[in-house]
Amino acid sequence: MNDRQLFLLIGQSNMAGRGTVEPRDRVTNPRIVMLTRELQWTPANDPVHFDKPEIAGVGLCSEFARVLIKTDPRITVGLIPCAFGGTRLDEWKPGDKLYTNAVFRTRKAMESGALAGILWHQGESDAGSAKAATYPERLAAMISLLRRDLGAKTVPLVLGELCRANPVYASFNAAFSDVVRRVPHSALVTSEDLRDKGDKTHFDAESLRVFGRRYAAVFLRLKAAANTARSGAGSL
After folding, report:
1. From CA 223, how far away is CA 116, in angstroms rounded?
2. In sequence order, which residues have a C-beta less than 8 Å from that of residue 46 and are 6 or more positions away?
3. Contact between 110 and 7 (Cβ < 8 Å)
4. The overall pTM is greater than 0.90
5. What is the CATH number of domain 3-231?
6. Which residues lie across from 160 on neighbouring strands?
7. Do the beta carbons of residue 10 and residue 122 sit within 8 Å?
8. Interior angle at CA 146, CA 144 and CA 147, nearest 5
9. CA 181 to chain CA centroid, nearest Å
10. From first to last of its 236 residues, what are the pLDDT tens digits of the chain?
11. Distance CA 197, CA 232 (A)
């Protein structure tokens, strides 16, 4: 029986995915499943998210999952889509709708697997705002509470940079490095050389696939580092 590893997907539109769906994105794999709006597991295909059905498209999570199942034939990847386009960080505060929904859906998912990671991509709605300077401390605080509420205090967190084609976003990307310094067991994924759809905000489908592979590589490094740390502690 495969080990189901679960990944919480949160943030705004680039995590939800706005890439154009192609036939290859509809191909399913029995080892990659997604949690539907109705809390049912089904073979994953894009769009994985359902935040805005009329514009939801290819995201980074499917390619992320494809990389993981290639690295370990024993696992199944379970995707928990909770991102919502156009949202500010303040809309993800504990007790508010988006946070509460993410915790509820993840807890339901954890009835049939173990939470292996949190994938975050958000910040477009905060970049350039009056509260941009406090983003790192606010996100770090939210992640700490989220981990607590999920009973997963050391679960890896992987964040991604915003689209560099927009100078406001490119400048804001420094905030994510600050988040990583504040949050243990976290790492940042570069958006270097990724293309946008022409709006200087949303990555195109192929760039999201590349982004997914980068997220996977960073997650695997975090996982390996955690395993090494545990092995070292056990040998003392």
Report:
1. 9
2. 17, 19, 21, 25, 26, 57, 58, 59, 62
3. no
4. yes
5. 3.40.50.1110
6. 189
7. yes
8. 65
9. 18
10. 469 999 999 999 999 999 999 999 999 999 999 999 999 999 999 999 999 999 999 999 999 999 999 999 999 999 999 999 999 999 999 999 999 999 999 999 999 999 999 999 999 999 999 999 999 999 999 999 999 999 999 999 999 999 999 999 999 999 999 999 999 999 999 999 999 999 999 999 999 999 999 999 999 999 999 888 776 655 45
11. 46
The closest alpha carbon to 3, from 115, 108, 82, belongs to: 115
Q: What CA–CA distance (Å, rounded) separates 212 from 61?
A: 6
In degrees, to the nearest 5, what angle opens at C-alpha 188 toward C-alphas 146 and 87? 55
Whether omega before 47 lies within 30 degrees of 0, making that bond cis, reads: yes
Q: Where are the domains of the chain?
A: 3-231
Secondary structure of the chain as H, E, C letters: CCEEEEEEEEECHHHHCCECCCHHHHCCCCCEEEECCCCCEEECCCCCCCCCCCCCCECCHHHHHHHHHHHCCCEEEEEEECCCCCCCHHHHCCCCHHHHHHHHHHHHHHHHCEEEEEEEECCCCCCCCCCHHHHHHHHHHHHHHHHHHCCCCCCCEEEECCCCCCHHHHHHCHHHHHHHHHCCCEEEECCCCCCECCCCCCECHHHHHHHHHHHHHHHHHHHHHHHHHHHHHHCC
Q: What's the token pair of residue 99? A: 């946070």
Question: Whole-angstrom Cα distance, residue 79 to residue 227?
Answer: 22
Please give the structure tokens belonging to residue 152. Answer: 């997963």
Place of tokens 């406001």: 168
